[in-house]
Amino acid sequence: MSDALVLGVVRQAIETAIIISLPMLAVGLIVGVLISILQTVTSIQDNILSFIPRAAAIFVVFAFTFPWMLRVVTGFAAALIRRLPDLVR
User: What DSSP designation does 46 have?
Assistant: First the structure.
């Protein structure tokens, strides 16, 4: 197994992980900033007020994007299994 092949597989795995997590991270960031602005404007400093909406938004995005995420991970795994003879050599 060559170094280039290993680096290619690792790079692909990292890219897949980033692509999968990006929607949830982006929504968490946006909701967190909006709640922080709301807390600053209203002078309400409550930890629950920042945690619950962010967690709910991330859960909703996860629920909507789960089929897509499953297709991406399944595609990556299938491609990895198809390349298994090359990886074993």
Answer: -
